[in-house]
Amino acid sequence: MTTPQLFHCLRYSDANRGIAFLEALGFTTTLVVRDDDDPSLVWHAQLSWRDSGGVMLGSSRGEDDPQYQRGVCNLVVAGDDDVDRLVSTALQHGATVVTEPNDAPHGGRNACVADFDGHWWNLDSYPGA
User: Fold this and answer.
1) DSSP of 66-87, one letter per residue?
2) Where are the beta strands (DSSP E) in the chain?
3) pLDDT tens-place string over residues 80-93
4) Regarding beta strands 109-114 and 120-124, do their DSSP bridges make them parallel or antiparallel, or are they unpaired?
5) CA 5, CA 127: separation in Å to the nearest integer?
6) Distance between CA atoms of 119 and 70, rounded to whole angstroms?
7) Angstrom distances, CA of residue 80 to CA of 11, 77, 83, 123
8) What does pLDDT average to over the chain?
């Protein structure tokens, strides 16, 4: 099996219900990171599709909800330094920063930019579970 390097990302108002729905469709849960104080809050979940695909998802978190509920493309990059480099490159090509580069609680480094048409691109060094 090849490790996926591109994931569709979603946020759910009820991430646990979203996970159950996707499992019913045939996805396999490979990782769920819940909030220690509130297990109903999912910080990050990853579900695999057959041999090489998958989705990442989490609980809705405020002002970014409408965009995440439509979906975000997650690009897995080779390393942490690539996240910062690609944010800089994206800004030079008309993007705006949605989420500053940061170290994710589930591992790796990530950031999110919006392209000139408002599509969100998550840049992530976390390769998935």
Assistant:
1) HHHHH-EEEEE-SSHHHHHHHH
2) 6-12, 28-34, 42-49, 53-59, 72-76, 96-103, 109-114, 120-124
3) 999 999 999 999 98
4) antiparallel
5) 7
6) 10
7) 24, 8, 6, 10
8) 84
